[in-house]
Amino acid sequence: MLFTLKNDVLAIEYPVQHFISEALRHGENPVWFNSWCMGFPLQSVLTWSVFSTPRTLLGTLLPSDIVVLHLEFLFYVMAAGWIMFALLKNHFSTEKNLALLLSCCYMLSGFTVGSSQWLLYLTGLSFIPLVIYAALSFFRTPRLLTSFFLALTWYLLLTNVHIYLTVVTGYILTFLFIGRLLFYLTNKTVDKAAKKRLTRYTLAALLLTLAFSAAPIYYTLELLPWLERSTPLEAGQQFFQSNYLHPVAGMKSLLLPLSTIKSAHANTEGSIQTIYMGLLPLLLLIPSIRKNIKEKNINAGWILFFSIFFLILSLGHLTPLRQALNFLPGMSFFRHPGVLRAYFIMGFIIYLGISFRQQSLISLLKTKGTERKLLIGLLIFLGSFLLILILSGAGSLENLWKGSFNETVRQADYQQLEVLNSMLQLIMIASLLFALLRKTILFYTLLLLELILNFLCCTPYYMVSSYSAAEVNQMYSYTRGFPVQQKPTYHLPVEISEKGTTVWRNINTFRKDVSTEISMPGPLVLEKVGQFLSSPGKESLIERKLVFIRGESVEMDTVNIIQQGPGKVVANLQLSAPREIVLQQGYFPGWKVFYNGKELPLVKNEYPFIAVKAPAGKGELVFRFRKDGVLYSAVFMHCIVLLGLFLGCRHHFRFKSSSPSSPN
Hints:
three-stranded antiparallel beta sheet, disordered C terminus, five-stranded antiparallel beta sheet, 25 helices, single chain, globular
């Protein structure tokens, strides 16, 4: 994470975050994103809006730059570990040290390594287990407070995580609640009071969830018909099937995460393939299956089934399962089935946690235990497999060294990386075997060290650039505040190239320029604007400024912009006759125009922009975009989230202080 982050996060999430931060810190309306493809309403589309409390708080407290973006990434990585630890420890009774190791396996998994491109995937690592934690807390003690926290965590998931993960998590929660209700309502040993209590507070949780989610969902539904991506994807399209988890490279990454970096398969991106979780889950798999069969642990079996189910789903069209799920509402809108490996990793970690509940790793390593013998056998088997890989690929290592480890890995091919990673893992397995036979206490440290080493080795090579944060900040040339734009929109670039290899997109956002160039088509482009800017009609804007007079005019007719902000543009007019004035911002409900304080009706023409007929003479023309409902509901929900955070901290510390102290 020490280098610049990758592709989409810099081209989409970062500009949105930067705009919201700049607007909030300069007293501007953060709803109309004026520099994104001739303007875009950030009233929702769920995760790209002012409804995200973490993003709003971060934007208010800190000026946006690449360092803050890295800190945000690191926060979500660490939060994933914290929340998974709490989930394992409090709801699955996993022993503290084992829960800590498993949480590190989850936090530093291949999903984390490969998600430098998608901040909204990485946030899912934190918020999905948080929602599960809240749901299990509700099942344990159904009451109004746990109903409130469940609804609140769902709101955070909805407004901070990619909608694909939110939809899938929604189906998982639905399955959990239906199963729980059926179990309680049909179980004769459960008294009627408990059944009524669960039903009553389940209804309360549902109503609170709908209430909290109402505003972002309403404003998203209002916006969807105006977007290019508003219809389902066809399952046969290459676009829909892209980035699946390739079975060979994906499964090999459980042991050799570096091997996926240079692998190349049709429609597959390397960062989507890795399902690496460290050596500990591999070593615990067979002992856990043996233990669960012996104890008839049905719950653990269901969780393992759940995990494998999502692993198969992540294979995309290589199996019919992912396509078969398109009958579920919302599923046919999304590609990237490889992202579903997040649920495989999460489910597998939870499975191990529940398998060894209240059992320490030290007890598994006891001298005469069967589990210890299994671990030794697994280490020898994995070591033998790695040795075979090394011997079979030894010839590929000729002239491998390029003067530094960095350049060696960058220039190595797939087989060379596989051999290199096999060597590293063989050394680690030999060390683990020594610790297991001689110094058991080192076993913990070595397992964690292996996880960190592989994470650090993989991370830089899923990045696009090796520029430092300071160099990136200089490259973007930030403009603080919202100055009046002087240059015509047609001549303002939106991209710069780094030595012809990497394209840095949407740079105009950081320089506060409105440009007619489309840098990143997709979910944040108004459809009519996108169509116009892709047509020959765009040529009519070559010499036009942000606000211009349409048609013929005389020399004395002038338009001078005196104030420019995201949702407000003010211009002084001097016209010899009534003229049509055009603001180069895409039209969306919420735009109004005032001339000397009096509202003017909007004029329709072939432009997808805002146009009015201004009278002759001198006057002040004000273009204003207002969505008071968006702002008020967003502020209200931010207050609710902060209240929930306060109540959660208060409950935690009260519970902690009321717990009996341990004897000396």
